[in-house]
Amino acid sequence: MSFRTKIAAVALTMTTVTAPTVLAPPTAQAALGDLTCALNAAYLTFTPPLKAGQSSSVNGYANLTGCVSLTSYGRLTRATIAASGTVTAAPGINPCGLILDMPLTGQVTWDTGETSDINVLLSTQLSSLPVLVGIDVTSGPLVGDSANNTVVPAPVPNLDCAIVGLQTLTVPVLAISFY
């Protein structure tokens, strides 16, 4: 190999090694939420039992456990949620079929003693599964955060619902993430 060929080969190698490298953009990743908690289930009671074309008061509660935060909410490790509202079943439709939208207001009581006020919408429109839970935090820790479109398995009404009306509803939520 001639001297010129060797110099050209070294120059080409150096250009390849020292040239700026163009990197592909990073792959998209979901934003980390402020807090994610396990939730065994949400429990709702209806007074009086909800029947077609009627309204009932609804009270609900749930326990959040094993909360994890990669942001500034690491102090919040568990909580109790209590919420209430009024729900009306459509006329002629058995509420046991769970075609309901339940707007609730309530409070989250954290293990630190702090509280967060919340607005909740539980939509059990079983004709358009999945069932959705939406939570907006209006005050306290996580104010401004939402936990929307949390997919949950189908809720379970009281076994004698067709006879006495909707008295209880268990919603087996698996986890809730606040963003």
Can you offer a commentary on this structure?
- By secondary structure, the chain is mainly β.
- Helices cover 11% and strands 49% of the residues.
- The protein has helices spanning 3-18, 161-164, and strands spanning 35-50, 55-68, 79-88, 101-110, 115-123, 131-139, 146-152, 156-157, 166-171, 175-178.
- Strands 1, 2, 3, 4, 5, 6, 7, 8, 9 and 10 form a 10-stranded antiparallel sheet that branches.
- A hairpin with a 4-residue loop joins strand 1 and strand 2 (55-68).
- It is elongated.
- Mean pLDDT is 81; it is low at 3-31.
Keywords:
11% helix; elongated; signal; mainly beta; 179 residues; Secreted protein; 49% strand
Number of strands: 10
**Please, how many helices?**
2
- Average residue pLDDT: 81
Number of individual domains: 1
Radius of gyration: 27 Å
Residues in helices, as a percent range: 10-25%
Structural class: mainly beta
End-to-end separation in angstroms reads: 65 Å
Instruction: Tell me the series of helices and strands, N- to C-terminal.
Output: HEEEEEEEEHEE
Poorly predicted regions are: 3-31
Beta-strand level of the residues, as a percent range? over 45%
Main sheet makeup: 10 strands, antiparallel
The geometry reads as: elongated
Signal peptide: 1-30
Protein name: Secreted protein
Keywords: Signal
